[in-house]
Amino acid sequence: MEGGGEGEPVQLLQFVLPFGCLMTPLVVPGLSLCFFPPRVSHLSPSRCRKADAAVEMDEMVAAMVLTSLSCSPVVQSPPAGESASRVACDPWKESGDVSDSGSSTTSGHWSGGSDISTPSPPHPAGSPKYSIEALSSPQVDDGFETDSDPFLLDEPAPRKRKNSVKVMYKCLWPSCGKVLRSIVGIKRHVKTQHLGDSADSDQRKREEDFYYTEVQVKEEPAPEAAAAASPTSASAPIIIQQALAKPEALLVEQPALEPALASSALSQSAPSSFWHIQADHAYQVSWWHLPGTGHLPKSCRSISWATATSTLPSLSPVSPACVSPWSFWGVGLDWEIRGACLCSHSPLQMKVRGEAKKCRKVYGIEHRDQWCTACRWKKACQRFLD
DNA sequence: TGTGCCGGGAC
DNA sequence: GTCCCGGCACA
């Protein structure tokens, strides 16, 4: 938390989430971060634009929040103006019951309880409310079903789009590239064609989301059917404004991830919030594509975005290298950056302990015989060098 | 409190 | 040189 003095103004910061949408955390001195929930119902750039328009509104909301937030972190049984403070302070409890009357014409996505002192989501990491799944998967019934969800429930309404820009969904499965018109369709496609229809449904659902991306298609007045019908056809009148930063790279890299592997990888990851990767599924960008990630000390790669209560120590420049874009999976939006992350750029900090696994950690005391000699002798570990 | 490892001692 | 461990710094 920066700033920190009492009575100091709330800072509004905005993150661009990997899927390209803004998220506005409320930084209240003395409190943990309270995130406005992402103003996006699905991973749509266009809706993000809409959300952009709502930024101002959010600031107003924030102002209201401030006024109503004269309350301490603890004092939170807001009698009046409650919607605003709720909004700010507990986006996690997105029950969908209220779209706060007071504040807004904005998306009104959030409502909430009053638990300001515990900004972390009430859900375990396994079922993060703001996981991609939550954002995109309509069938998940975990209470995340607010208004957004005409969009969630079906494809975006074309009539809202000017200039005949249409949103379509492109399969990211290696060498597939199928483009479909609807989320449902693409999900079905991914599920049936690539993931298989079998068990493990929960995991599958997440993967479905992972394997498609939203693309904007400028439709020529001409036959639109062609676009959907023959997505791979080069002659199709599609101008894809690919949202992904590096779709090719993605397609190249992704094959390396067996679905199973991918799913496990997904569960470890983190939002690269600080890189304004403009992508619907930018978190899909393999993190080794991020600048400088290839040669990092393990200590940096092991940055934990675990369930956390801690605030972002410094919202500014955290190296891209230190953030795994996978993190969205499984952790929701509450995250923690370990200070050690910053170590990679400071030789002095390189020696920060505890990030790398050591023989002791790896093998355990009971298998001391498998430790490297140095470890056995209580010297600096030679096997798992930092 | 657990862990990593420096410094130093015994052999 | 090898092996061991007291003790400190750190998370």
UniProtKB/TrEMBL annotation:
Recorded hits in PANTHER family, A to Z, give:
PAPILLOMAVIRUS REGULATORY FACTOR PRF-1, ZINC FINGER PROTEIN 395
Segments of skewed composition (Low complexity) = 98-115
Q: Which GO terms describe its biological process?
A: regulation of transcription by RNA polymerase II
> What GO cellular-component annotations does this UniProt entry give?
nucleus
- Protein source organism: Calidris pygmaea (Spoon-billed sandpiper)
The entry's protein name is Zinc finger protein 395
Region feature (Disordered)? 80-131
Its subcellular locations are: Nucleus
Q: Which UniProt keywords apply?
A: DNA-binding, Metal-binding, Nucleus, Transcription, Transcription regulation, Zinc, Zinc-finger
* Any one GO molecular-function label of the UniProt entry: RNA polymerase II cis-regulatory region sequence-specific DNA binding
Domain C2H2-type spans what residues? 169-199
Where would one find coiled-coil regions in this protein? none
InterPro entries for the chain: CR1/CR2-DNA-binding_regulator, Znf_C2H2_type
